[in-house]
Amino acid sequence: MPPRLLPLLRYSCYYKSKPESLPSFLLPWCQHQHRAASILSSLSDNPGAYNKKIRRGRGPSSGKGKTSGRGHKGQKQHGKVPRGFQGGQTPLEIVHGKRGFEN
Predict the structure, then answer these.
(1) DSSP readout, 31-63?
(2) What global pTM score does this model have?
């Protein structure tokens, strides 16, 4: 664990010690630098920092309502289907085996 600097900082800054008497690694923290509340309240993300989440199934005016981008009827629309599922048929990779060169 890193050393606990908080009690040491309070002591050194409270008694207004001379900078020469403080260890060099404590000097940056003893110069009282506090951020104003106005700076903290005006912080915001850069434009384009994140994409807006698409809310699906929230009515026709949302553009992603009704079927929510899944299409009409079928197993894929009604439930979850594993990737590479071929409707119960034995996958071609199992029937013919993996081919090619693998280094």
Answers:
(1) S-----HHHHHT--PPTTSSPPPP--SS-GGGS
(2) 0.36
